[in-house]
Design brief:
The chain has helices at 16-22, 40-53, 81-90, 92-112, 141-158, 188-193, 197-200, 228-238, 261-271, 282-292, 300-304, 317-321, 327-338, and strands spanning 5-7, 27-32, 58-61, 63-65, 68-69, 117-118, 163-167, 183-184, 208-211, 215-216, 244-245, 276-278. By secondary structure, it is an alpha/beta fold.
């Protein structure tokens, strides 16, 4: 049975405490961070070990490209999605083709090391939010819709489910919800007609959504991830979306309005999330696992749709990725377009999601 919690682990191999935690009934997933990654073979061994202890787990990672990439050593670098947006303004056809390549390449390499899904793509509009910044494809909804649609087609062709974040849009508020409360004062109509459009118009390609830890004060006094208005009324009823709803990390400052971690987990699940993420706080993870015992299990059929098509490990990343028909071509296209002038792996500015 898939549980309602997704938690993290300490290092590059499972500890006894990790094993105890992932075996608990309501733990349904593990999310990997940079501290869990040494190289591709180690990650695959770690994922295989996790599944030996609990087969009913989703394993996830944030592998967006640019600043937000947990898998680096030995993996193909991916550009920030904003670079695709810049190219789109000059050469839309080429940008759309490369968006597909990015989605395919990312998914193939993530799946190859035993990870089910990357929480991607970011569907937020570019704007004043520094934590979003060049993680966004573009400032205009129509460009995001076009580029993200191709990116998701690539992901799906490689065998990975998609997760749009951060519903209904984080790009229009300056505060970073990882470390501060974020409030958007616009009306519902303004949000629906602008920031929400990339989500609403790519629904056929979306398997999951992740709501923002942003309070949209004219809609509800709770962050979207704790709001029945956003999750049940708007996502489920208005948009008729039946995919998985993942909370954003409940250890973030933007989630503190709901109380301690036990209260946050309960609030997220009761509002309509299927799976609640509790990351980078081991004490909180234990508290959350205990509190989750009182909650109902998520819809098993729905959650199972997020399982990735994991290939047989062939001893190294390249050999394993050769099982994906388009991997080599996608890799060449990305490297030649975005990294041809670099003699070594690109250096990126600080990861905005590394808040602990």
């Amino acid at each position: 049975m898939y549980g309602v919690l997704m938690i993290d682990i300490d290092s590059t191999a499972l500890t006894a405490e990790d094993v105890s935690l992932i075996k608990q009934a309501q733990v349904g997933g593990v999310i990997l961070f940079a501290r869990n990654v040494a190289d591709a073979a180690q990650v695959r061994a770690l994922c295989d070990d996790i599944r030996q202890h609990n087969a009913d787990l989703l394993i996830g990672v944030d592998q967006e490209g640019g600043r937000v990439a947990r898998l680096r050593q030995g993996f193909t670098p991916l550009p920030a999605m904003g670079r695709l947006g810049e190219l789109f303004d000059q050469d839309p056809s080429r940008a759309l083709s490369l968006a597909y390549d990015c989605g395919y390449l990312m998914a193939a390499e993530v799946l190859a090391v035993g990870i089910d899904l990357s929480f991607a793509p970011v569907l937020d509009r570019g704007g004043i939010s520094q934590v979003i910044g060049d993680r966004s494809f573009h400032q205009t909804p129509q460009a995001i819709i076009a580029l993200a649609g191709q990116f998701m087609r690539g992901m799906k062709a490689a065998g990975m489910a998609t997760t749009g974040k951060h519903f209904p849009g984080h790009g229009a508020v300056a505060p970073d919800s990882h470390v501060a409360e974020a409030i958007d004062t616009r009306s519902l109509d303004e949000i629906i007609n602008s920031d929400m459009q990339p989500f609403a118009q790519t629904l056929p390609w979306l398997d999951a959504l992740m709501p923002a830890h942003v309070i949209f004060s004219q809609v509800d006094n709770k962050p979207a991830g704790f709001s029945k208005i956003w999750l049940k009324d708007i996502i489920r009823k208005h948009l008729n979306f039946d995919g998985v709803l993942f909370s954003d990390d409940l250890s973030m400052a933007g989630a503190q309005a709901a109380g301690d971690v036990s209260a946050r987990v309960k609030a997220a699940i009761e509002a309509g999330c299927d799976i609640a993420l509790v990351c980078n706080d081991r004490v909180a993870a234990h508290e959350a696992a205990k509190a989750a015992q009182e909650l109902p299990y998520p819809d098993q059929k729905r959650v199972k749709t997020m399982r990735g098509q994991i290939p047989v490990w062939q001893g190294d990343l390249e050999s394993t990725c050769q099982q994906f028909d388009y991997w080599h071509q996608a890799k060449e296209n990305i490297l030649q377009t975005f990294f041809a002038s670099q003699t070594k792996a690109p250096t990126e500015s600080k990861d905005p999601t590394a808040y602990r």
